[in-house]
What does this fold into?
Amino acid sequence: MNYDEVIALRKAFNSVKEKQAKNQPKDFEERKKRLKLSRELCVGNEELLAKAIDNLKKNGMKVYIAKEKQEAIDIILAEIGDEKLVVKSKSNVTKELELTKSLEKKGLTVVETDIGDRILQLLDAHPSHPTGPVAHLSAKEIAKRLSAHYSQPIKENPEEIVRIVREDVISNIKNARIGITGANAITAEEGSIVITHNEGNIYEVMRKEKHIVVTSIDKLYPDIEAAMSMIKILSFNATGSLIPSFVEVISGVSKTADVEKKFIKGVHSPSEITVILVDNGRRGLVNNGFKELLYCIGCGNCLLHCPMYNTIGNGYAIDNYLGGKGIAYYSLCNNEKNEKLELCLSCSKCRENCPLGLHIPELIRKIRSSGIHSDVYYFLKSHIIWIYYLLLLESKALERCFSGFSNR
It folds into this structure.
């Protein structure tokens, strides 16, 4: 565990909590109820998924379903063809696939265009939050490590860091012909892709000649209205804002009907859109009683309130799988009871702060234990670990305090 990273993480999380306290939406409870009904309807609904795929195709998009990780990567490689430079936006599904590293192994240059993800890529680090991937790194630490990468001194302030990384990203976007994004929702009624972002990078990435959308079969919603309601909940829980800066609704390639009302495709970019819907164990979760795990919209609000995650940070994670929900998902998809499941305190703070009320502690107990004796063992062991780390954090803070006093 890195003490500085935990301190930075808590600072970032507290900032989001403060924004949430100031911006509490009036209709939030009603929206959460509608979201729960929507997720219950859509997740695992093969008939609705088939309808969405049919409508995506009718809208002129190429659609694939990838049953597992390598199949998805192979499809993406085939779609990229002979291109050597790809720009992409932040996507938890592509992190799950380890797509960037897989493409780089094939000799491609892949540039993450989200500022946080680009920093992670350059520092070869793991994320700490689904929408704020570098929340665990202070500006001082980022500046220090980026100075070494760019071989130039970078000031220890967020504005300077963002400026340097932005210039790097923009120069690569200009030269790319293929852009890869994720998607927050796929709508069955309209056959549309819905993507939200704050930086504006997705707008640039999706306007390349070919736009490849990599998402998963559980990102299904009945219609645009349900997807947009979800976006508001996602934005508030992830950042404290009532609505993100940008919401993209993509319902086909660029086209015009200005002359005799006849549609002409490919007027501007993109002239080709490919949608890859990843299964990678999700149907297995539905069929084996873990459907609820797929209701998650990836807002990360559970992490903001998890005592264990706020105590040991990425010590309570496996690569890109963060916190109790992430580790539960990892364990199920890899058919193993990962030892980090023992760290769950069963305090239900995640459930209390989840917009869908997902009972992650119950899912974790279901995975790791079939008897009360082992439940008690895990409960006591995790509490002992938690207290131990709290004492370590406090002792480290005291050590810094005394060190600063003695240096005066």
Remarks:
- The domain at 3-283 is CATH 3.40.50.10420 (Rossmann fold).
- The longest strand covers residues 210-216.
